[in-house]
Amino acid sequence: MAILISCPSCSKQFRVTDQAVGRTCACPQCHATITALGDRVPDYDVFVSYSNKDKHVADAVCAALENRRIRCWIAPRDVPGGAQWGSTIIDAISECPVMVLVFSAHSNRSSQVLREVGTAVENSTMIIPFRIDECPMSKDMQYLLKPLHWLDAMTPPLEDHLRKLVSRVLSVVSEHQEVPQLVMPMDSPAAPRPVEATATNKPGVPKKFLWGGIAILATIAVLLTFLWPPVPAEDVAKHSTEAVTAIAPATAPEPGEGRAFNLSDAVSMDFIWIPPGTFTMGSPESEPNRLENETPHEVVLTQGFWFGKYEVTQWQWEAIMSSNPSRKIGPDQPVEQINWFDCQEFIDKINAERQGIFRFPTEAEWEYASRAGTNTAYFFGENSADLGAYAWYESNNRGSRHPVGRKLPNPWGLHDIYGNVWEWCADVYADYPSGSVTNPVGLATGGSRVSRGGSWFVGGEFCRSAKREGTPEDNRHISRGLRLVRAR
User: Fold this and answer.
1) What's the rounded Cα separation, in Å, for the pair 14 and 179?
2) Residue 429 near residue 451, CB atoms below 8 Å
């Protein structure tokens, strides 16, 4: 919960974390020093309802909103460990003034989504349907949603529709509110005298929409003030956050810096810090073996992220899933024979452990990380004759895939980014845009997903940084695996 306080000097209303109760904080408008005392208000602004099969879109929606300080409640991330799922969902919907419904053929058939929408209607929660599929509504869904205004997101690029969604939600929960800075107790005689403040409510305004119109996500900003030191302005600009990627730490690590994170209490994974940046995605016409689907275009990634140092191994997969689908068994071998839905289930299970938020890489993130600041066909240059030092592929595979980490890494420290196993990405396979894009997330639905990096099973031309494959979501093959992004 957060605390709603009102400045007695200028009447500015804003929120602070409940951990700030009794402490002094600065009003974001007049900078008066006041004591944080007031009424508790809910932590969340938006409940995100979706089908598990659309989780990649739901995650993109959540990230886009939270980038604008709109606090989202999304399962399984925000379900407390050991809590009853049903009652937690009901409480969360009741708490949020807005529900964003990711509407698709999958959610249209989901009894869970229908219950969530019904609960929102019963609580007079504003519902914003975000439609990613052209499909007729079921009669039950039609009964609940037909009078509403829809936001259609059925044509690429998805990020354009996300911007419209953010604008719509901001119109409900207030777009131009400032975030207060927490001021620690001051003992100096010259310090301003704290003034006790209490919450105020405007007459005639429903409480639910009053708190929704206040400073969005001041809770998070104040908590960060407790946990991390101030960030220089130039670092904030350099490491800004954006829609689909991770929330970078206050002081970002160096490019290529490694860190281990837990997937569960018993399983950890090594990650490499990938800095934000701009690069040319795709390949020039002069690149040998290039294909027409590699149209070069500028991509801006405004936020760094943690990327798996290695492909997911069999022991990591088995520890989470209690099964191993791989044909060639070995604890340090990359897990293989997994389709896109298997990977999403794996991700859902580790996220339920509440050790962090993990996901697929976007296709743009994958290529950016594989290039590691280079613009050649391979991160080591143009000559595929050198590939054997960095990758297991057709010419050196000895008839099989191999344990991870046995080949040299790329300049940012990623092993097996070429070869060994193809790596699933979040994106639906589609043609590239012709112009510059920022934080692209690709189409929301389709028949095939992007896989990247080549494998032990194919020639060196398939291992180029720009090479992309469209693979049916349900395809399981001995040459296809997974590498994770840790979003936060």
Assistant:
1) 7
2) no
Q: Report the C-alpha gap between 10 and 412 in whole angstroms.
A: 50
Contact by Cβ (8 Å): 244, 65? no
pTM above 0.90, yes or no: no
Helix H or strand E segment including 259: strand 258-262
Per-residue pLDDT tens for 38-53? Answer: 655 557 889 999 998 8
Low-confidence ranges of the chain (pLDDT < 50): 1, 175-250
The pLDDT value given to residue 52: 87
Rounded Cα distance between 123 and 119, Å, is 6
Give CA separation, 135 vs 7, 108, 129, 192, 342, in Å: 50, 8, 13, 61, 25
Write out the two tokens for 164. 């419209």
Given this model, what pLDDT does residue 184 score? 32
Burial tier of 228 (Cβ tally within 10 Å: 0-12, 13-18, 19+): exposed
Domain boundaries, the chain: 2-42+176-234, 46-161, 258-486
The total number of residues shown for the chain amounts to 488
- Pick among 3.40.50.10330, 3.30.1490.20, 3.90.1580.10, 3.30.420.10: CATH of 258-486: 3.90.1580.10
- Helix ranges, 205-244 (H): 207-212, 218-227, 233-238
46-161 maps to which CATH number?
3.40.50.10140
User: What is the per-residue pLDDT for 315?
Assistant: 92
pLDDT of residue 85: 83
Q: What is the pLDDT of residues 307-338, one digit of tens each?
A: 999 999 999 999 999 999 999 888 999 999 99
